[in-house]
Write a structure and sequence with these properties.
Layout lengths: L20 H17 L6 H8 L3 H7 L3 H27 L6 H13 L8 H9 L5 H25 L7 H18 L3 H19 L1
Helix pairs in contact: 1-2, 1-4, 4-5, 4-7, 5-9, 6-7, 7-8, 8-9
């Protein structure tokens, strides 16, 4: 779901194992800090302290902060894939409609501790530069995420839903922003009901 992630490797010189324990600690620490406090606000020294590694260790895995940012986005996508795959499947046990099950998973995410919106939306705003590798990854992630939504729409109503797929994607993205601003999960219900009306309109037409 939401596409397959790739292992990130900077490819610069002789790099240590992409699966090392230290690398994983750095990624998890940076991901947590970037999401909570913002990419630009968190410096490399803070990541080093949080991960409990030497500066040389961090730079052996990630030669620059931009390398670390890109790797964290890969890491975050894997977490997003895992969450929505598990949560949507769980909700489908009680909700037959695949899109309604997805919106139930979305609402569950909105109520999770520490929810601070979409890490990819946040990154796009913070990085600002459209040519930054992280920004390019965000575009790719959103394309994969919307392809997943498209699959759920097609499963729910068949080819007739093709025309409303972009609108459903906008409803989801807007619900994420609204949930963050309002500090309320109700946006998931609003987006779900609006999506249902859209799907109903194309199946009746």
């Amino acid at each position: 779901m939401i596409g397959q992630t790739r292992l990130y490797n900077s490819g610069m010189g002789r790099t240590p194992s992409a699966n090392s324990e230290a690398r994983q600690r750095i990624l998890e620490s940076a991901d947590r800090l970037f999401y909570a406090d913002g990419i630009r606000a968190v410096g490399i020294d803070r990541v080093i302290a949080e991960a409990g590694v030497a500066k040389a260790t961090l730079y052996a895995h990630f030669p620059s902060k931009d390398d670390l940012i890109l790797a964290v986005l890969h890491h975050r996508e894997a977490a997003v894939v895992a969450f929505f795959t598990e949560a949507t499947a769980r909700h489908r046990k009680r909700v037959k409609d695949p899109l309604r099950a997805f919106f139930a998973a979305l609402k569950e995410w909105f109520t999770s501790p520490g929810f601070r919106g979409c890490a990819f939306q946040n990154a796009a705003v913070e990085l600002a530069d459209p040519n930054h590798p992280g920004t390019a990854f965000v575009r790719g992630h959103k394309k994969r995420f919307h392809e997943t939504l498209a699959g759920l729409v097609r499963e729910a109503v068949g080819p007739a839903g093709e025309a409303v797929i972009p609108a459903v994607a906008v409803l989801v993205e807007g619900a994420i922003v609204t949930a963050l601003i309002d500090r309320s999960p109700v946006a998931a219900d609003v987006a779900r009901d609006a999506a249902a009306r859209l799907l109903s309109s194309v199946t009746k037409g």
